[in-house]
Amino acid sequence: MIARTLPLAFLFLAAPLAAQQAEADTQTHLDRIAALDDAGPELNAVIAVNPAGPQEAREAEAAGLLLQGRTVLVKDNIETRELPTTAGSLALADNLTGRDAPLIANLRAAGGVVLGKTNLSEWANIRDNDSTSGWSGVGGLTRNPHAIDRNACGSSSGSGAAVAAQFAWAAIGTETNGSITCPASINGVVGFKPSVGLVSRTHVVPISSTQDTAGPMARSVADAALLLSSIAGEDPADSATLGAQRRADYHTGLADFSLDGARIGVMRNQMGNRDDVKTVFETALADLEAAGATLVDIEFELDEEVYDASFTVLMFELREEMGKYLASLPGDGMARSLADLIAFNAAHPAEEMRWFGQDLFELAETTTDREAYEEARAKALRIAGAETLDRIMAENEVAFLIAPTRGPAWTSDLVNGDNFNGSIGFGTPAAVAGYPHLTVPMGAIEGLPVGISFFGGKWRDFEVLQLGAAYERVRSAVLPEPSFRPWEPAAL
After folding, report:
1. Assigned domain for 240 exists
2. In which domain, by residue range, is 354 found?
3. What is the rounded distance in angstroms from the CA atom of residue 85 to the CA atom of residue 204?
């Protein structure tokens, strides 16, 4: 880990960047990390930083590239050449490959600066059923900047918390099912899970070749779209990217979309059982309707067979994809298979398994029936895509679907694990089918952020971003700012 003892300063990055501003803004972000992540409330959102960031920002700005030296924090399951890639596990503490994942190479080519690596739920939260989101053996427990005794959600917990705390202009997370959108919603930032195939997964520690994707997390839809433009691209080593219906960019033309006359499906059954979440969501619906949108109420219950089918896919692909990734690592003495990781954890119980075990790793190691896997994969994709998202939008003649993303952050509890409300949200179909899912802040409950989700068809990423940006422009809710303190009830 790189030391981060730096002087304090509290300035904020503005966009677009002023001349010769990138270097100063980068140093400000490093100072802010030192003050609020390493000290003070100790958010534990950032695992390591790149001390060459200010110089790289100056050079990128001078080159006149798209991002002009803007700083980006990267989830620590994505390889960058200057820092180890640990997936939060001590088993990969020395995994300094010297490689850039293609999405990071694209980022640098666009003038982005890798400021550092963010903490995450270890192994992207696929090690055990009873985990606590945001905890890893390398980084400890990430704290939510809006209430530091509350959870930051996972697995891109550090990326969401870091953006909320203004530790960088933006961050990159990864998602298999909810790992970008949940932490974005709970930390009060924008998160976008693109269609699977827009962004390369090469040199990203994997779970599932069917569902994995990286995506942007930022303070506005425009910034998220700009970051997506910078990291998306074809990769010969990732077959999912070869047939992608990809735009040249995703950040120009966001304002061309009008809510007037837009038909949007409201997933009423997925609003959940909390009246306070429904109240905030109804305000968001009123904002959309006042701007001219036509809201279509939809009553739909997801075929629950999709959960078992998708779970089989994840367990089978985890063993295979993790083995391929580990086998690609340079150097000696590295784990080379999922079985090696299981053995490492068993040999280091105090450091790795004090609060939860590795039952999912162990199950994945024994999930080897390829025929059953292929049947499950076809079933999961059919239910989530054709029989759910495509069907709902076609039958109701709507272009988009919306629902609350999640409820407010729950209290972190390493002893008992996560305690989130599973009745809220509709993210699973988009995750399983590989369709786009955008979450945008829509307000707060007792000072704790909640987000609204926008869904569209496969490859309709740009239109979903346009809709989210249009909602931002008409949003009436006042958004909370991080307190960097434990949660307290608001005064009546």
Report:
1. no
2. 22-234+256-474
3. 9
Take residue 42 and report the two structure tokens written for it. 């100790």
- Per-residue pLDDT tens for 73-121? 999 999 999 999 999 999 999 999 999 999 999 999 999 999 999 999 9
Residue 387 lies in a domain: yes
pTM of the predicted model over 0.90? yes
Task: Spell out the residues 6+ positions from residue 367 whose beta carbon is closer than 8 angstroms to its own.
Answer: 312, 315, 316, 319, 373
Catalytic residue IDs: 75, 155, 179
- Is residue 251 situated within a structural domain? no
Q: Residue 222 sits in a domain of what CATH number?
A: 3.90.1300.10
User: Could you tell me which of 353, 357, 361, 358 has the C-alpha nearest to residue 337?
Assistant: 361
Q: To which residue do tokens 């079933």 refer? A: 379
What residue type is 244 in one-letter code?
Answer: A
| 3-class DSSP string for the chain | CCCCCCCCCCCCCCCCCCCCCHHHHHHHHHHHHHHHHHCCCCCCCEEEECCCHHHHHHHHHHCCCCCCCCEEEEECCECECCECCCCCCHHHCCCCCCCCCHHHHHHHHCCCEEEEEECCCHHHHCCCCCCCCCEECCCEECCECCECCECCCCCCHHHHHHHHCCCCCEEEEEECCCCCHHHHHHHCCEEEECCCCCCCCCCECCCCCCCCEEEEEECCHHHHHHHHHHHCCCCCCCHHHCCCCCCCCCCCCHHHCCCCCCEEEEEHHHCCCCHHHHHHHHHHHHHHHHCCCEEEEECCCCCCHHHHHHHHHHHHHHHHHHHHHHHCCCCCCCCCCHHHHHHHHHHCHHHHCCCCCCHHHHHHHHCCCHHHHHHHHHHHHHHHHHHHHHHHHHHCCCCEEEEECCCCCCECCCCCCCCCCCCCCCHHHHHHHCCCEEEEEEEEECCEEEEEEEECCCCCHHHHHHHHHHHHHHCCCCCCCCCCCCCCCCCC
pLDDT tens-digit series, residues 441-474: 999 999 999 999 999 999 999 999 999 999 999 9
CA 427 to chain centre: 13
**What is the phi/psi pair of residue 55, to 5°?**
-65, -45
Q: Is the residue at 243 inside a domain?
A: no
Cα separation, 167 vs 169, in Å, equals 7
**Among residues 78, 81, 106, which one has the least CA distance to residue 230?**
106
**What's the Cα-to-Cα distance from 449 to each of 178, 276, 482, rounded to whole Å?**
16, 12, 10
CA atoms within 13 A on the CB side of 397: 2
Q: If you average pLDDT over residues 195-219, what whole number do you get? A: 98
Q: Burial code of 256-285, b = ≥16 C-beta within 10 A, e = fewer?
A: ebebeebebbbbeebbbebeebbebbebbb
Give the tokens for residue 210.
């069917």
Q: How many domains does the chain have?
A: 1
